[in-house]
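Ticket closed. Logging final result for ubiquitinyl hydrolase 1.
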Amino acid sequence: MDGTLTDTFSGLGVDVHFVPTSCPVKEPAGVCGLDNSGNSCYLNAVLQCLCSTVPLVEYLLNQDTQVFDPSCRSKCRLGGVFVQLLKKMWMGGYSSCAPVEARSVLGSILPQFNNYSQQDAQELLLFLLNVLHDDLKKVTRRQMRSSTLQQRRKQGDKRSIAAAAWETTAVSQLFEGQMSFMTLCMHCDHQAHSSQTFTVLSLPIPTDTSKCTIEDCLSLFFQQTILTGGEQMLCSVCGLRRETTVFTCLDNPPEILTLHLKRWVEIPEQNSSYSLYAVVNHTGNLNMGHYTALCQITETQAQPLI
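Final structure:
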């Protein structure tokens, strides 16, 4: 039914106004709640944080980009519905909406989320970023196949550059960083080096204090570690498992740093290379609980798709 319905409780003199959820309510851009359906709080909390990630929003909603146009949405289902959700949250003027289609598509792609059970928000975030990254790669491949630049490739190095471009998306540019590891055999001093890209850093919590900061957790994560006992590594020179020292370094920090904390830590108010803009909170225990999100809303510079 359209319009505002008014009903007066007989004898109480109280007017009760029912506002249909289909009627848009003017809200600032990006300020839009997500309705829970069953135990979907873990999904809504993660979606709120992603929808508050301004560089990602600007890229996906920019009319010059038009990432997921109708011609590719059948092959990029999650990317397509995520853009539709962004448009509703940033352009729809609704106080809240229900991400029903996003949840349905997510469940069809990732069956482990196709139920009403509570799930781990950090695990979901990784899955969402991976699927969105894959969808964006499909768009990039399609665009490059139709590009005249690809047809002019003749040299191997150009093919390598083009192949690398296929693997790079807005998700990897924003969320991926790189760490390097050096292992030192404590018997023969042999060194081995390796590197690894990451999207989320799962930080250990110091056990010798009841209160710590993120800096304390980062220091503990990057401190040198000695592997002994059952954790000894196989030395390629000795041919045996030896006690090993592991050094971890951050070579290339991501533009957006995502941290996974196992419990509350203090966030100090001081100058940093990063500014906190979104947090997913969990209250409860391993078997049950509730997720909420706290997000800072910032105006975007994107010219949104109509």
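The radius of gyration is 24 Å. No further action required.
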